[in-house]
Every structure is written in C-alpha cells, then in structure tokens.
Amino acid sequence: MLLRARQFEFQFPRPTLIMGIVNVTPDSFSDGGRFFETDRAVAHACTLAAQGADLLDIGGESTRPGAEPVSEAEELRRVIPVIERLAAEMPTPVSVDTVKPAVARAALQAGACLVNDIAANRDDDAMWRVVAEAGAGYVCMHMQGTPQTMQANPVYADVCREVGEFFGDRLRRLEECGVTPEQVVLDVGIGFGKTLEHNLQLLAGLRRFTCWQRPLLLGVSRKSFIGKLLGAETPERLPASLACAALAVANGVQIIRTHDVAETVQAVRMTEAMLERQTK
Q1: What value does the mean pLDDT take over residues 217-224?
Q2: Residue 32 lies in a domain
C-alpha cells in the first residue's frame, strides 16, 4: 500500500507514522495560545520533529466543538509563515489542517505536502480539485455536521457501517475529481459528531476500515470523550490517549496524530515490537 503526498512517498507496511500537532491558534482545546506566534510555532514543530514526529500538522483554526470559524485572511496570516519556514528549514513533511480550499492552495504553494480536511463531508469539490492539481496527500475525515453543530445530538443507526459507507462514497468522488487512491488517508473522526459510545464503537471497530486498502489515521490525543469516560481533565488524558494509540496500531492504523510525540513514539514502538513477535 502506497501513500503519495507530492514529493513524499510512504510504502506500507512500515513503522507507524507519528503526526505531531502544531496549533497556531489562540483557542484550541488543548494548547490554544501556546504556539500562536510564528517563532514559537516553528520552535515547537522542530521540537516535535526531534522527538520523532514523521509529519507535522499545522492548523490555524480551532476545530473543537463549538469553535467559531476564522476568516480566510486570518488563517492565512497564521499558518503560511510557519509552513514556509518549516518547509525551508527541515526535511519533515508538513501537513496543513484546514477546511478552506484557498488556504490549502496557499499552504501547498508554501511547501506543505498534505491537506488534513475535517470537512470531507463537504458538497462542493473545490478542495478536492486543489489536492488533485498539486498531487498532494489528502486526509479524508468523517464528521457529522460542523464544529459548531456536531455535538448537538449526533445520531447513527450503526456508526461503523455509516462511516464505512462515507469512505466508499468519498473515495469515488475524490477519484472523479482527479485525486488518486494513493493520495488518500482515511480518518474515522473521533469526537467529530459522535457521542462517547460512538467513539468507543469506532475504536473497537477500527479493523473494519482496513478493507479500503488505504492508510488509516487516528486522532484521539487529549480529546473530551476521554474526560467523559474517565473524569480526567485535559492535561491528565495522556495515558488514555496512549492506550487508544496502542489499540489502533494493533488494529491496522498507520498514522497517529498527537500532541505528545515523544510519549506516543514510545508507546507505538513498544506495541509494534510485541506485535512483530506475535507473528513469529
């Protein structure tokens, strides 16, 4: 299985890719404001790369439940200087976390190689045309609703079946727009229009989504469903995040998106070492 993201190629099976999160925002749920200035964001990204991040995901708009959207101009002001510097100064592939086609285009021109799109449930195809033209990688994430509405009352008859059907439909539509399957990563969208029970069902059913023969990305780092289940505040959710990452790797996930790169690298590499010996 191959993932193409512009000049980068990742051939699977291979060690799990670790995607480090760099929020260039004042209001993200976990670290909002800490890396809002360009120099601090770049320094943090360099630290994550030194800790073992294989990808750096740069976002300029919070997608926490209830977050208000920011203007295109403001998002560009936040992320483009960071992406330009990272692309020029280090070899680690850079992803842009955005729902805006114009921001994606500018980020790709600035040196990003992958678009992480939480709004793959979109109706228009402008984002997909941008991805196709650039030959970029594309994270196709499932979300019910929008960040402003997604947690109001999410309902599914069968969440795993419906997310799987969504992936099948989007892979078809992406290919119609010129995005090849080798460019696509699938993300079940933990916490995006799902209740605690929906999230747990998706985590338990991750193996089902390997049928699409595309890399799976999982983002659970410090998310609120952990707090709902365990009563843990945001800074206390690392152990549960690592448990989810280990389970995911054991069930066919190839990319883990995380705030805590060093700890996640340790947990994932230990999981891989044990899994390797199970097959011998």
Answers
A1: 94
A2: yes
Identify whether 223 is a catalytic site residue: yes
> How many of the other CB atoms lie within 10 Å of CB of 204?
12
Interatomic CA distance for residues 111 and 191, integer angstroms: 29
CA distances to 42, 143, 199, 237 from 268, rounded to whole Å, are 25, 26, 20, 17
CATH code, 241: 3.20.20.20
State residue 63's pLDDT score. Answer: 75
pTM of the predicted model, to two decimals?
0.92
Strands (DSSP E) along 160-228, which ranges? 184-187, 216-219
> What is the distance between the alpha carbons of residues 19 and 257, in angstroms, rounded to a whole number?
4
How far is it, in rounded angstroms, from Cα 259 to Cα 250? 20
Has 228 been annotated as catalytic?
A: no
Catalytic pick from 237, 257, 269, 280? 257
Question: Which residues, 6 or more positions from 225, have their beta carbon under 8 angstroms from its beta carbon?
Answer: 190, 191, 194, 196, 199, 200
User: How many domains is the chain partitioned into structurally?
Assistant: 1
Say which of 4, 170, 194, 223 is annotated catalytic. Answer: 223
